[in-house]
């Protein structure tokens, strides 16, 4: 069993970041030509400070203090890199009608000892042939410890049979990889490691935002900053970047269903659907459809905290394995991926801890090394979930009643703004109704939200150690005995698992929509219809079901 992440050849590296080197000024100047208009309002926001920092000039001393490229290295590379630069090579609509924007490194003449326009000693070039696509020794210097040896900060799960923190397939096998780049540090480091391992990479930014929903938030628009950062990262790593519009797919495959589920009183998870239906679904189909234009890709990589295991003799048999960093593990969001999707997937950072990720990004001078992680649903950015729901479902005033007595305690704007276990946002008169109050349940037909102060009482907790789930999805088609392998489950993203005490099918195995009854070893305080339950056997993620 091979644990899939990264395995480099002896000499691998990436090109230097874009920048003009002036001997007279002794400064590396980084510019951002993509967006020239003023961003944000009058007050200097954190976002504008971030953009200002991204465009500032660093002295060689500052670069060395931050682990950046030294002036001597830039000077030595100047002779081979001075005439190179990035340019927009394509703004077009492809065969599927989507518009896309492509950035790519300038092509240069390559001689026998030249890789991507950068001169190599002959002995290094011979070892790099077939595995190396570019060269920049400063990036190799920071990536190589991760690529070559154990990462002491990774906390790799012992059950994953992995003694190397970042490995991809086999030594000397060069892959063509479509890398999903979000503008965040995780996907940027994933791209860096793939390039350092010698794979041919093309970065893709999937545009899924909705203009109508952001019309009042243009000074905070998340996609603009994300695209700028993604472009800067690709300039640094000499990787072409394409932005592809998936707004319609995202609406039809993810958002529309999520809004409908919320309207029915359920609590869906759009991010799970986004991964299976868009990032590794519609996007993969788009790659296949446009193969003549963009070429064939061996893998689709992302910056998710997860790992894959493949059999040496059968690469179609793929296991989805929990990340070595339990706090950041994202297999919960990937559990809806099918075997067909996992066969082509790649998660380069799955064995690396978050602090190590930021350290690598800092050492590589990536502009987003200190950028905060995104929170909440990916397509909303800084728009509040309640505002998005109100935009699409409106308001429907109803009653808030105590579950035990039926007493009327207040009103709400619509039951879809509340979920089971919720404590904040009830807006009750605290002087008249001393809490704390929790959402106990909802009557969708009568538009009533029931709350309780005794939410954690023994009587109310009695039924919180079991649930039913439907719409089952399994990660491995070849595993005919999934139910017997279920040992643990998660009912939400996070570190916490429940031990599964009993699994009982409530429908025949031949039923089109098989259902399961799950009994767990704890009493969960927020089980709600529409949530995903994700099942594990050891560190392997087996699949998922929707709580019903």
Automatic annotation (TrEMBL):
tRNA-specific 2-thiouridylase MnmA-like C-terminal domain boundaries: 465-547
Reaction catalysed by this enzyme: 5-taurinomethyluridine(34) in tRNA + S-sulfanyl-L-cysteinyl-[protein] + AH2 + ATP = 5-taurinomethyl-2-thiouridine(34) in tRNA + L-cysteinyl-[protein] + A + AMP + diphosphate + H(+)
Signal peptide residue numbers: none
Gene3D superfamilies registered for this protein in UniProt: Adenine nucleotide alpha hydrolases-like domains, HUPs, Translation factors
Highest taxon in the source lineage: Eukaryota
GO molecular function: ATP binding; tRNA binding; tRNA-5-taurinomethyluridine 2-sulfurtransferase
InterPro entries associated with the record: MnmA-like, MnmA-like_C, MnmA-like_central, MnmA-like_central_sf, Rossmann-like_a/b/a_fold, tRNA_2-thiouridylase_MnmA
The protein's name: tRNA-5-taurinomethyluridine 2-sulfurtransferase
EC number: 2.8.1.14
Purpose: Catalyzes the 2-thiolation of uridine at the wobble position (U34) of mitochondrial tRNA(Lys), tRNA(Glu) and tRNA(Gln). Required for the formation of 5-taurinomethyl-2-thiouridine (tm5s2U) of mitochondrial tRNA(Lys), tRNA(Glu), and tRNA(Gln) at the wobble position. ATP is required to activate the C2 atom of the wobble base.
Region named Disordered: 1-29, 61-112
A GO BP annotation: tRNA processing
Residue ranges annotated for the tRNA-specific 2-thiouridylase MnmA-like central domain, each copy included: 387-453
Keywords from the named record: ATP-binding, Disulfide bond, Nucleotide-binding, RNA-binding, Transferase, tRNA processing, tRNA-binding
Family membership noted in the UniProt record: Belongs to the MnmA/TRMU family.
Enzyme's top EC category: transferase
Biased composition (Polar residues): 68-83, 92-102
A Pfam family per the record: tRNA_Me_trans_C
